[in-house]
C-alpha cells in the first residue's frame, strides 16, 4: 500500500476503523469518513500519532451529492483514489432488532415445533427502507465516484464489506439487513465483470459475527445460556475478532492476486 490513496467509509469505529489501521500501517495514505464526527476525529488522531497520513471528513454515504463532494476533496488533498473499502453500513442494533435476534437464535438452537417467526410480516415500510440508503445506495454512490477516478488511470481496487447475512438464512432476524447485503454481493459481481478490463478489481468480504463494540454490548445483555446458544451455531465456537478481518481487506486491496467478483466469507465455519 506504500503511497496508495485509500478511502475507507464508516471508519470511525469497529471493522472500518480496524481496516483503516491496517491500510495505514501498510503505507497507505488514508481518506476516512463517517457520520460519527467525534469518533472519526479520534480515529484520525490515533492514525496520525503513528505517522499515517490521514484526511478525515464527515460524509453521509446515502447522500449522493455529499459523496461526490467528499471524493472531490480526497482527490484535491491526496490525489486520485486507488483503493476504496465500502464499509459504511446501517447494522441492526436497536432494541427491536435485539429482541428478534435473540428469538431467532433460541429458535435455531432449541428443539421446538417449527413455525413462522413473523419478522417480515410485522416490518414497517420505514424500517425496511432506511437500510437501503446507506447499505446499497451508499455503496453505489461511492463506487461510482471512485471509478470516475480509477477508470481513466486504469488502476483500482474496490473491497465491498457485505455480510454472511447476504449469503445465508442465518440472519433471518433481520430480513431488511440481509436483503441489502445480498444486493451488495450482486452489485460486487456485476461491477467486477464490467471493470476488470480496466485493471480495476472489485471483490467483497462477507463477515460472519464480528466482535465489535455493538455486538459485545448485545452479548453482555444475554444470560450465559443464551450466549451458549449463539456460540453453538459457530463451529469455531466464538466470534471473529477485529484483528482477524483487516488482513483480508489488505490482501484484496493489493496487487498480488487474480481475484475479481469474488465473495470471501470469514465466518468461523458457519457457512
How would you describe this structure in keywords?
271 residues, alpha/beta, Rossmann fold, seven-stranded parallel sheet, 46% helix, globular
Task: Describe it.
The protein is globular and about 60 Å long. By secondary structure, the chain is of the alpha/beta class. Helix 1 crosses helix 9, helix 3 packs parallel to helix 5 and helix 4 packs across helix 8. It has a single domain, classed as NAD(P)-binding Rossmann-like Domain (Rossmann fold), CATH 3.40.50.720. A 7-stranded parallel β-sheet has the order 3-2-1-4-5-6-7, sandwiched between helices. The model has no long low-confidence stretch (mean pLDDT 95).
Rough outline: globular
Strand content: 5-15%
C-alpha-based Rg, rounded:
19 Å
Largest sheet: 7 strands, parallel
Count of DSSP H/I helices: 9
CATH-defined topology: Rossmann fold
State the name of the first-level CATH class: Alpha Beta
Amino acid at each position: 500500500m506504500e503511497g496508495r490513496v485509500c478511502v475507507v467509509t464508516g471508519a470511525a469505529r469497529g471493522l472500518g476503523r480496524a481496516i483503516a489501521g491496517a491500510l495505514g500501517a501498510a503505507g497507505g495514505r488514508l481518506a476516512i469518513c463517517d457520520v460519527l464526527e467525534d469518533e472519526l476525529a479520534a480515529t484520525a488522531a490515533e492514525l496520525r500519532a503513528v505517522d499515517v497520513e490521514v484526511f478525515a471528513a464527515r460524509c453521509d454515504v446515502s447522500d449522493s451529492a455529499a459523496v461526490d463532494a467528499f471524493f472531490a476533496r480526497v482527490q484535491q488533498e491526496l490525489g486520485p483514489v486507488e483503493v476504496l473499502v465500502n464499509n459504511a453500513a446501517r447494522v441492526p442494533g436497536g432494541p427491536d432488532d435485539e429482541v428478534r435476534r435473540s428469538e431467532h437464535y433460541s429458535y435455531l438452537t432449541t428443539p421446538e415445533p417449527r413455525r413462522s417467526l413473523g419478522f417480515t410480516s410485522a416490518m414497517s415500510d420505514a424500517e425496511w427502507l432506511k437500510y437501503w440508503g446507506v447499505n446499497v445506495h451508499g455503496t453505489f454512490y461511492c463506487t461510482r465516484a471512485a471509478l470516475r477516478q480509477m477508470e481513466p488511470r486504469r488502476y483500482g481496487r474496490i473491497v465491498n464489506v457485505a455480510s454472511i447475512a447476504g449469503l445465508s438464512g442465518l440472519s433471518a432476524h433481520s430480513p431488511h439487513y440481509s436483503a441489502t447485503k445480498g444486493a451488495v454481493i450482486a452489485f460486487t459481481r456485476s461491477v467486477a465483470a464490467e471493470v476488470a478490463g480496466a485493471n480495476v478489481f472489485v471483490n467483497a468480504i462477507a463477515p460472519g459475527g464480528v466482535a465489535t463494540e455493538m455486538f459485545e454490548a448485545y452479548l453482555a445483555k444475554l444470560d450465559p445460556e443464551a450466549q451458549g446458544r449463539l456460540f453453538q451455531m459457530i463451529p469455531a465456537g466464538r466470534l471473529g475478532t477485529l484483528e482477524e478481518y483487516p488482513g483480508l481487506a489488505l490482501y484484496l486491496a493489493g496487487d498480488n492476486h487474480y481475484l475479481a467478483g469474488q465473495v470471501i466469507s470469514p465466518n468461523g465455519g458457519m457457512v
